[in-house]
Amino acid sequence: MVTEMAAGQPHPGLRQLVSRYLGYAQDDVPLGLHRGLPSRHVTLIISLAEPIRLVGMPRPGEPPADLMAPVGGMQLSPALIRQDRFQRGVHVELDPLAVRSLFGIPAAELSEHVVDLADLSPRLERLPERLAEAGCWERRFGLLDEFLLAEAAEAEYSPEVGWAWRRLRAAAGRIRVGTLAGEVGWSRRHFTERFRRELGLSPKQAARVLRFERAGALLRQGHGDLAGLATDCGYYDQAHLTNEWRALAGCPPGVWIAEELPFLQDAPLPEDPR
């Protein structure tokens, strides 16, 4: 398999909204089905080739879809993608709290859903075409800056929820919900409701995703000791890790390692400059 990868940082005016841009071009892809795993981000994937074929949605019962620019909210199960032998595109990692600013809705409205970018903002309908016409990754990342800066607007959300989300993220999910609620001065019930209303997941669910994401990043970096990795990521033991992977990835970690890890680029743990 021939793979070309490029990473880009967003414009400073977008740093609170977008974590990074990842460009990819892959030829002779051997893996027919890819699992789009839960993560801390609302994910935008823009195809520069054929539409992305989503054959399994995070929410059961939702029909498959072929989309040029799918946007996926935070989720507790994988999105299943049927892969073409050749694929090219850009992966954009959005902070869930940025969804209000870019699309005028809370991230909760996208939770467990995958929607077309054009349905969120008709002004972005031509973005896939413009990116495909650009001649290099640097120009594509510049176009993303232009389009997203034009969309970005002032948006208000609870500062307590924002603080708690950053705190939970920095701890990679290894902090108790009751502790977070106490630190913002709310009851656990009120805190959970306000958090879910904004992000679409409860704090406990978000913590599960963050621990899972850290485990996946460490596996990509070659950490093969599952028992040690389970302890490092905040699981009770290896069995707890395995059960969480079955729930969030749709398979145990050993299956994911065998089926998908050989075809993934090494990925550093997500940085959190905020």
Describe the structure.
- With 274 residues, this protein is an alpha+beta fold.
- The protein has two domains: 2-151, Jelly Rolls (Sandwich), CATH 2.60.120; 159-263, Homeodomain-like (Arc Repressor Mutant, subunit A, Orthogonal Bundle), CATH 1.10.10.
- Helices cover 39% and strands 19% of the residues.
- It is built from eleven helices and ten strands.
- The protein has helices spanning 99-103, 117-120, 127-133, 137-151, 159-170, 177-184, 188-199, 203-220, 226-232, 238-249, 253-259, and strands at residues 2-8, 18-27, 33-36, 42-47, 52-56, 65-67, 70-72, 79-82, 87-94, 114-116.
- The chain has a six-stranded antiparallel β-sheet with strand order 1-2-9-4-7-10.
- A hairpin with an 8-residue loop joins strand 5 and strand 6.
- Helix 6 crosses helix 7 (188-199).
- The longest helix has 18 residues, at 203-220.
- Mean pLDDT is 92; it is low at 266-274.
- Keywords: DNA-binding, Transcription, Transcription regulation.
- This is Helix-turn-helix transcriptional regulator.
- Residues 174-259 form the HTH araC/xylS-type domain.
Write the layout of secondary structure elements.
Layout: E1 2-8, E2 18-27, E3 33-36, E4 42-47, E5 52-56, E6 65-67, E7 70-72, E8 79-82, E9 87-94, H1 99-103, E10 114-116, H2 117-120, H3 127-133, H4 137-151, H5 159-170, H6 177-184, H7 188-199, H8 203-220, H9 226-232, H10 238-249, H11 253-259
Antiparallel strand pairs: 1-2, 2-9, 3-8, 4-7, 4-9, 5-6, 5-8, 7-10
